[in-house]
């Protein structure tokens, strides 16, 4: 595959498609390329970039800080100290200070460990993942990963073990068209992590992320259920089937659900028929809604485009919102407004206040996008890509943000 290439997409797409045409992918795999979508400047065309990428600067946030308060991250409470949200002290990662500003309001969080891209040398560290797990476990009981390179499955499971927090993980295998080795490599490290850590903290295994979106666009199609779409689906289904065989070989065929994630309008029916669950990216930002209208838009889109169609399939895959959120900034001024509202902390707050507790009450399973700002995306893709975090890249709760106090089921 070529390293980087562009393809223009017609602007005549339905609003929903664009909308969900989601956000770039979070994670990305390996030495191969991954298709990523980048919003072009306002009023101009949208371009699709296929690239490999990534870079992550290792913000070696030195730990420092204060005393531990002894409890292990179960309920909220406690001290919430100074500017650093959480930190380990002593050598026991299960003893860490709880931040009183954090509440387990989220059904789930989308997470990519810093430095989990092999192209940049795999700089992920257990120390950083432990910090992340300490923070995330104060916000939710579920996280999802996108891929398995750079040892991220084991790092996360090891961090959960050491911190003793109540956290379930949806592991991920980031499938890349034309690079079957990427799938196989990830499958093998996932298998090894399962053998090492067991299944207690594994809620599912997601095979493929935005694979259909990238596949149909690369093949100049818009329809995931076209003949072209079915060709892409066959690649995914082969990997999904292989993953089930791997789990069956561990006698876990019925224990760990196997799913797939994609942009909300890009699910192929045959893929949905092959999985236990589907995870859908649903982003009001890319549908150009206002921040005030975002929660309603997301809820309706997910219900109509994903939940209802999935319920008609004989296997009735459970549908999740894989990503939803609101950006707080943009690398360039041109992308700092989507035509409806600004990318800002104030508008992320609006979305938090109108979506999170309401979705919890409605029983909508969602992964908030995302845990923290991913600096490499800002460098590589610009726009709002690097600004979706609840925490900033230094793992500090964004200034001015208030986490809802409801507790997710
Ligand atoms: C959203 O607004 C941008 C900038 O004006 C525009 O390029 C894009 O086509 C719009 N998207 C939709 C789905 O309306
Ligand atoms: C936060 O971390 C920084 C850098 O490690 C440190 O200098 C500072 O004292 C810490 N602040 C608190 C309140 O712990
Ligand atoms: C992967 O992470 C686990 C947990 O920290 C560690 O035991 C193992 O050695 C790591 N493997 C590699 C190849 O880094």
Automatic annotation (TrEMBL):
Keyword Transmembrane helix: yes
Coarse class of the protein's main subcellular location: membrane
Protein name, entry field: glucan endo-1,3-beta-D-glucosidase
GO process terms (BP): cell wall organization; polysaccharide catabolic process
Biased composition (Low complexity): 57-92
EC number: 3.2.1.39
Catalytic activity: Hydrolysis of (1->3)-beta-D-glucosidic linkages in (1->3)-beta-D-glucans
Species: Pholiota conissans
Similarity section: Belongs to the glycosyl hydrolase 17 family.
Membrane topology of this protein: Single-pass type II membrane protein
Region of interest (Disordered), ranges: 57-96
UniProt keyword list: Carbohydrate metabolism, Cell membrane, Cell wall, Cell wall biogenesis/degradation, Glycoprotein, Hydrolase, Membrane, Polysaccharide degradation, Secreted, Signal, Transmembrane, Transmembrane helix
Its job: Glucanases play a role in cell expansion during growth, in cell-cell fusion during mating, and in spore release during sporulation. This enzyme may be involved in beta-glucan degradation. Active on laminarin and lichenan.
Domain of life from the UniProt record: Eukaryota
Pfam families, alphabetized: Glyco_hydro_17
Gene3D superfamilies: Glycosidases
């Amino acid at each position: 595959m070529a390293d980087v290439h562009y393809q223009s997409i017609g602007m005549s797409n339905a609003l929903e498609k664009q909308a969900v045409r989601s956000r770039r992918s979070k994670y990305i795999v390996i030495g191969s390329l991954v298709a990523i979508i980048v919003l072009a400047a306002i009023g101009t065309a949208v371009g699709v970039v296929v690239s490999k990428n990534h870079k992550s600067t290792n913000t070696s946030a030195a730990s420092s800080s204060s005393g531990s308060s002894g409890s292990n991250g179960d309920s909220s409470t406690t001290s919430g100290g100074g500017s650093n949200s959480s930190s380990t002290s002593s050598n026991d990662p299960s003893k860490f200070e709880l931040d009183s500003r954090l509440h387990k309001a989220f059904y789930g969080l989308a997470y990519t460990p810093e430095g989990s891209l092999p192209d940049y040398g795999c700089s992920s560290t257990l120390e950083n993942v432990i910090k992340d797990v300490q923070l995330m476990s104060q916000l939710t009981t579920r996280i999802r990963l996108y891929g398995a390179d750079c040892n991220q499955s084991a790092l996360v499971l090891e961090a959960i073990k050491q911190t003793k927090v109540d956290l379930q993980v949806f592991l991920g295998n980031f499938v890349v068209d034309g690079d079957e080795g990427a799938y196989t490599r990830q499958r093998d490290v996932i298998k090894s992590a399962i053998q090492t850590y067991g299944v207690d903290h594994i809620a599912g295994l997601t095979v493929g992320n935005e694979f259909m979106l990238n596949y149909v666009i690369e093949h100049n199609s818009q329809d995931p259920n076209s003949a072209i779409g079915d060709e892409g689906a066959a690649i995914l289904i082969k990997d999904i089937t292989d993953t089930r065989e791997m789990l069956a070989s561990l006698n876990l065929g019925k224990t760990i659900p196997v799913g797939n994630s994609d942009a909300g309008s890009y699910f192929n029916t045959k893929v949905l028929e092959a999985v236990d669950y589907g995870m859908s990216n649903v982003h009001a930002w890319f549908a150009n809604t206002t921040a005030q209208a975002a929660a309603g838009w997301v809820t309706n889109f997910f219900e109509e485009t994903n939940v209802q169609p999935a319920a008609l399939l004989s296997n009735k895959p459970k549908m999740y919102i894989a990503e939803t959120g609101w950006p707080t900034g943009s690398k360039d001024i041109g992308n700092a407004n989507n035509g409806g509202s600004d990318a800002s902390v104030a508008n992320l707050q609006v979305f938090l206040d109108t979506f999170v507790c309401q979705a919890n009450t409605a029983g909508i399973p969602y992964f908030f996008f995302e845990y923290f700002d991913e600096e490499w995306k800002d460098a590589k893709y610009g726009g709002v890509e690097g600004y979706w975090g609840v925490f900033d890249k230094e793992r500090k709760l964004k200034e001015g943000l208030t986490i809802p106090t409801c507790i997710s089921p």
